[in-house]
Q: What sequence folds into this?
């Protein structure tokens, strides 16, 4: 109401009408407020209430999303195979939209190749874990740890073996995938085994008459065959490990005993294996 208050305004508006001839009384002038020299600007870094309620957008980890989608394909490979797997099925398994799958992988082949790399990472981590469990790394523990990690002796080993089998089966209908991407990781394992077999021979811890490359290829083929027999129900993981242990004992010399100092098979004169499945990881 200004500085006059209610009474002041009442007196001011009691003006004579034009008929009375009295002049009108103007209302008191309002005090003008000088404008600000500059418009208000919030301080840098200040968060408005509206922005606070919206929340700060979460940063997207694109590699994590790619891996999440790739691991969904690996689950399909280990559970149902890949022959009829589609991008839409992968999206449903991953719980994301088809558009998001196609954003990160422009083709099914690109998704397959990326997923195969993730599968190789998982197997590599398992191999390292098995080798560490055998104690100090030696040529024998590295070879034994690598091959037993590949063998499906537990739930994780079964999952990995089934996933690889899904890829190998797909190669039957799409051989160009095998030509372009198939043998990379198995070749790496074969070279690793060859290297450490040769080192064991040089240290007098393995049969010096064996051909390292051929022996490594034979051991890996043995493990793959044993894995298939486990998947097919012919034997369980413990029986498969017993067979692998028998063949490894025929290659490696017990610590401290020169090559040829004990019968093949690790201590039985008639060639019957005296080892158990546990001896391979002692």
A:
């Amino acid at each position: 109401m200004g500085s006059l208050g209610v009474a002041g305004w009442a007196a001011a508006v009691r003006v004579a009408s034009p008929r009375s001839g009295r002049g009108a009384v103007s209302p008191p002038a309002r005090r003008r407020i000088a404008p600000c020299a500059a418009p208000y600007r919030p301080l840098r870094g200040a968060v408005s209430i509206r922005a606070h309620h919206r929340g700060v957008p979460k940063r997207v980890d694109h590699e994590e999303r790619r891996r999440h989608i790739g691991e969904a394909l690996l689950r399909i490979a280990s559970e149902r195979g890949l022959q009829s797997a589609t991008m839409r099925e992968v999206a449903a398994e991953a719980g994301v939209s088809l558009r998001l799958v196609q954003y990160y992988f422009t083709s099914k082949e690109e998704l397959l190749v990326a997923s195969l790399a993730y599968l190789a990472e998982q197997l590599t981590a398992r191999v390292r874990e098995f080798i560490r469990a055998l104690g100090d790394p030696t040529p024998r523990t590295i070879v034994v740890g690598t091959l037993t990690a590949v063998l499906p002796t537990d739930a994780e080993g079964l999952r990995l073996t089934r996933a690889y089998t899904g890829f190998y089966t797909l190669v039957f209908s799409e051989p160009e995938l095998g030509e372009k991407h198939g043998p990379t990781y198995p070749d790496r394992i074969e070279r690793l085994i060859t290297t450490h077999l040769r080192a064991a021979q040089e240290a007098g811890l393995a049969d010096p008459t064996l051909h390292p490359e051929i022996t490594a290829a034979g051991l890996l083929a043995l493990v793959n065959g044993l894995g298939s027999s486990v998947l097919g129900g012919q034997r369980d993981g413990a029986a498969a490990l017993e067979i692998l242990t028998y063949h490894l004992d025929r290659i490696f010399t017990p610590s401290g005993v020169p090559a040829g100092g004990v019968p093949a098979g690790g201590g039985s004169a008639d060639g019957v294996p005296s080892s158990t499945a546990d001896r391979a990881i002692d």
Summary: The chain is about 60% helix and 0% strand. The CA atoms of residues 241 and 277 lie 6 Å apart. The mean pLDDT is 77. The radius of gyration is 39 Å.
